[in-house]
């Protein structure tokens, strides 16, 4: 580890560190535009200049210079100050003076660094400024490329993180332009992250354009519920409306990225909302009040309160499911289920249905078998982790219909029988691997592949002790629903799944935002929909009780790797809508049963007493994997994946105009007309 001196302070830095990293370790702020911690080094903005001895008597780009033994680095000399002023002056020569109308205003790196490191005055007089025609990058990214300073962050992100070579540079020198090839829309699931990366206002959010300034917004820490990754986000709200969602840095979960759906579905929070009670009378849904609805539910149950069931949707928080389970238990019923689409895999041991390697751990795997999972659509933020593993030399094998992986992989067909008789190429790769891993997706779970897959744990030695003494568990199940692992921890599942619930023929069915389930088997039941959008579940309901969305309530969520996380309330629910637990608490009074809680705090405490792991943020411990069933055989062909349209997987996204446009334009190649047309 080399020792360097930064402005007179001697520090020790890791081998391979750059001068810029050494300066930051010493607590010195180094301005930069092109350098980013998660991207390759470009060294083309020249803003990070420092003076280094021994070396030539001139400023040097600290981002591209390796730190070496006995280097003397100066960040505060007159030479460095003058050099940074000169670079900033060159950057501003062609930059338009449109800060008052630029959406980056108030959170712009160029503004901040011009203030801190620029000259006090301008020498610009009447020279012509360079101008660049606007580019079209799709329905999410607004471009004003005259502002572009050619840092190439967007280019490097698309190539290195997303793995889609859609953005690049054309021409040279003063004529250089950043654009998508043939000016097509950027069509991948992480495209909008270039907006966060852009240090100026060249790439901004098209749906958010001219909506608000950053200092007007209230920031609330939340969790993305569009999939089971549990990305950490910040909801920015103005008044009673969520204006945008931005990623928060969490290296263990989403690093600092966010999927386009998690970022842009928020406009659906104010559309197609349920904001009053509705009851079906004479085949039509008519307005009603809470008292009428509760009376109708109680009357339909009669004296036999045990004939009630509850099905939880994909975006429900743990507190809501616990409140529902407690209510049903008080009524004498145990008819609860959260796997609304009908899956029936064994949940007696949660380690068998968990992403045990962890998202950061899968990066270090050197051989990965993916069975029945379209990872780009089911967990868009896990896909870059797999790309890192492949870059480090990992071999990837896939079972299922083909999709564009963006990395080198070998397809083994769609027949699950390959799990019974392992192909030689896969067997040899797994045998040679030091960190073998397997990922089982929703399509494989639906075909009953969990038990046969567990047989491969011993065959491939997926659970082992590594050379450094740490434990390795390479068996992973990748869920798609934000509520899935939380529901399994709470026991909100039955051995027979939805078929068991339908077989019991309950008089009342409580649907907790369950919009993907089949309501036909419950034709004779009173269907009570407790949700926030007028989606499929509301259309099938006899009674609609308006509830709060994830942005309108506090709640606990558990992601697919068993990580317990807490989301805070950002805004209030519209109209008569109430938080789900309050609706269930009021229903308990109407049914004349006691649930043991009167406040959200009491509800949380009761939940934590029953499942202590839900009270501790971080990875839950599910113990060891179960013993495999030696008689289990994989059978069937994976014909398709569960997700048919990445942008329209939940009621919030289906209500979002932005997501509808993305679906039409990016997936179905429809030409979206402008208003004037």
TrEMBL record:
An annotated Gene Ontology molecular function: metal ion binding
Reaction equation(s) it catalyzes: a quinone + NADH + 5 H(+)(in) = a quinol + NAD(+) + 4 H(+)(out)
Family to which this protein belongs: Belongs to the complex I 75 kDa subunit family.
Name recorded for this polypeptide: NADH-quinone oxidoreductase
Species whose genome carries this gene: Erythrobacter litoralis
GO BP term (any one): ATP synthesis coupled electron transport
Any Pfam family the entry gives: Fer4_NDSU1
Residue span(s) of domain 2Fe-2S ferredoxin-type: 2-79
Domain spans labelled 4Fe-4S His(Cys)3-ligated-type: 79-118
Cofactors, names only: [4Fe-4S] cluster; [2Fe-2S] cluster
Cofactor binding summary note: Binds 1 [2Fe-2S] cluster per subunit.
Residue stretches making up the 4Fe-4S Mo/W bis-MGD-type domain: 217-273
GO cellular component: membrane
